[in-house]
Specification:
The structure is a single chain. It contains eight helices and four strands. It has two domains: 72 residues, Glutaredoxin (3-Layer(aba) Sandwich); 127 residues, Glutathione S-transferase Yfyf (Class Pi), Chain A, domain 2. It has a four-stranded mixed β-sheet with strand order 2-1-3-4. The structure holds glutathione.
Length: 213
């Protein structure tokens, strides 16, 4: 088996998700980082398309972080990322949807400002309002258990925590990537979501080095 290779184009919660999954599974892998959004040409050359993350395994290229997690679970041992029941899978997919269309959309409002190089206070206020409304669902689930679906982390946690990280991380931390830093300075998750704050820390501790990605 060839060593796993992960193509990364920071900054990206979806890249962090895959790094956490590889770490949780205890897999060895190499990373191929590209230079921010300027690295797109090299990424297209290497993978045939412009988005990250991309996982290379045994001559196969696997695209899309949602697909990559499923690929890892199907092909490697270690802790299961997904459920063996239909109800369990449905619950994980609902959490994935919250990341993609809820937190992801709110962070997209911030990424747009970062890329344009121009602050828009209305968009920032909407992002903060949206994130604090959505966090109620996380906080509710975390009343019952340390992870969203029980005592062990699964794909739901790995998918969502990187999207919440920017609004709980200390903005003055030295090793933040540009997106984390931009969001952390402008949008905050309220302190009343204490369990959510602790959960992000718990999930990110699966691999501390991911904050800088
Ligand atoms: N649904 C895809 C999203 C892939 C995606 O949009 N990747 C972003 C980083 S999160 C990217 O590579 N953007 C580069 C660009 O737009 O130039 C996934 O989950 O992997």
């Amino acid at each position: 088996m060839t060593r796993l290779k992960l193509h990364l184009l920071p900054p990206s919660p979806n890249n962090v998700k895959v790094l956490l999954a590889l770490k949780l599974k205890g897999l060895d892998f190499d990373t191929v980082p590209y230079g921010g959004f300027d690295g797109r040409e090299a990424l297209v050359e290497a993978t045939g398309q412009p988005l990250t993350p991309v996982l290379e395994h045994d001559g196969r290229k696997v695209y899309d972080s949602f697909g990559i997690l499923r690929y890892l679970d199907a092909n490697f041992g270690g802790p299961r990322l997904f459920s063996s029941t239909r109800e369990g899978m449905r619950a994980i997919e609902r959490w994935e949807d919250l990341a993609r269309n809820g937190f992801g959309a709110a962070l997209g409002l911030m990424l747009a400002q970062l890329l344009e190089g121009k602050d828009d206070p209305d968009k920032t206020a909407l992002a903060e309002r949206t994130i604090n409304q959505l966090a109620v669902r996380l906080e509710d689930a975390l009343q019952a258990s340390p992870y969203l679906m029980g005592d062990e982390p699964n794909a739901a946690d790995l998918t969502l925590a990187p999207f919440v990280l920017p609004v709980v991380v200390d903005p003055s931390s030295a090793d933040l990537n540009p997106l984390l830093q931009y969001v952390a300075k402008r949008v905050r998750l309220a302190g009343r979501f204490a369990k959510t704050h602790a959960w992000v820390e718990r999930v990110m501790a699966i691999d501390h080095s991911t904050a800088a990605v």
